[in-house]
Design goal:
Pfam families: HTH_18
Organism: Streptomyces tauricus
Protein name: Helix-turn-helix domain-containing protein
Helix content: 40-55%
Structural class: alpha+beta
Distance between the termini: 43 Å
Number of strands: 12
Oligomer: single chain
CATH topology of one domain: Jelly Rolls
Shape: globular
Keywords: DNA-binding, Transcription, Transcription regulation
């Protein structure tokens, strides 16, 4: 079990539980010991089926921030609880499936429900529900004990696409927490936790509070992640990103201004960086004009001027110097 942490009370930190390389019949015991060392019995591990315990190959990276637990899970083997499962929970849970499927039963409003790749489920559980995961399932999870969320959710099961604007924002903020949690001071940890709660509320209500300044860093991170995946798209722009994230263009621009950046500047900088990496390759397959077209510069002249301003050399000069 590898871990890094901050805070003497154990309220912040990260650790890894990995039994994918552990002999099958020792995997569950190793996982259970690691879990109980960190959490005790709150929350307790589910009552897994005998088949699951006999072949328990799971990798779980956990980040803890106060009452929030973020989990990045890969289940190499199939996982199933005994039915009926049980045990008090009183947790708000989010499950975003990236690969495979997660099936949960006993939902008062849905009965049994399967969350497949690209979908999420959010609800409050007062009891441990029966569930199963198919082999090779990847999932991003969030557990919260916040009483602020229970009245909003009630007895509802909220589901939807994992790439909805609200989920993009929440996912971006969870990534930021994972990368910064060990360095956060008390004030930073408190702010990060408050933003997490607000973004879960946004997912529950399908509405983002674009007037809340604390949410600006999450919006910037989500916009950057979205832009990075579409750098070669001709229609990538500030307006496109704002529309995809379901916020006004002005809101997006204000968020970037808060971190001393601009949306267009970020897009251009990332395109130049990708072009630079291509030029540095030993045998770059693209000419300067082809690079300009590929990374959506108006023409070679615009590309050359922008590249020289950014890196102090023309693309041709840079390519020669790196080779």
């Amino acid at each position: 079990m590898n871990s890094t942490g901050a805070g003497a009370d154990g309220s912040r930190g990260t650790f890894l539980l990995d039994t994918t390389l552990t002999p099958a019949r020792q995997g569950f015991d190793s996982f259970r010991r690691g879990w109980e060392a960190r959490f005790g019995d709150r929350p307790a591990l589910p009552a897994y089926s005998a088949d699951t315990i006999a072949d328990f190959r799971v990798r779980l990276r956990i980040t803890r921030l106060r009452d929030a637990v973020i989990g990045d899970l890969y289940a190499e083997s199939a996982v199933r609880t005994d039915d009926p499962a049980g045990g008090d929970l009183d947790l708000v849970e989010l499950h975003a499936v990236r690969r495979g499927a997660w099936t949960v039963g006993g939902l008062p409003d849905r009965g049994e429900l399967t969350v497949s790749r690209g979908q999420f489920l959010l609800r409050h559980f007062d009891r441990q529900p029966p569930f199963k995961r198919s082999a090779r399932t990847r999932e991003l999870g969030l557990l919260l004990r916040s009483a602020m969320l229970r009245p909003l959710l009630g007895n509802r099961t909220v589901t939807g696409p994992g790439d909805s604007p609200e989920m993009r924002l929440l996912t971006a903020h969870m990534k930021m927490i994972r990368s910064t949690v060990t360095g956060l001071g008390p004030a930073g940890a408190d702010a990060a936790h408050r933003v997490l709660i607000e973004l879960v509320k946004a997912v529950a209500s399908s509405r983002f509070d674009d007037g809340e300044p604390l949410l600006a860093p999450a919006l910037v991170r989500a916009a950057k992640d979205l832009a990075d995946s579409r750098l070669t798209d001709a229609d990538l722009s500030s307006a496109t990103l704002a529309r995809e994230l379901n916020v006004s263009l002005r809101t997006l621009q204000r968020a970037f201004a808060a971190v001393d950046e601009s949306v267009t500047g970020y897009i251009r900088g990332r395109r130049l960086e990708e072009a630079r990496l291509a030029l540095a390759a030993p045998h770059s397959p693209l000419s300067v004009s082809e690079l300009a077209a590929h990374w959506q510069f108006a023409d070679s002249s615009h590309f050359i001027r922008a590249f020289k301003k950014h890196y102090g050399q023309t693309p041709t000069e840079y390519g020669r110097s790196t080779r």
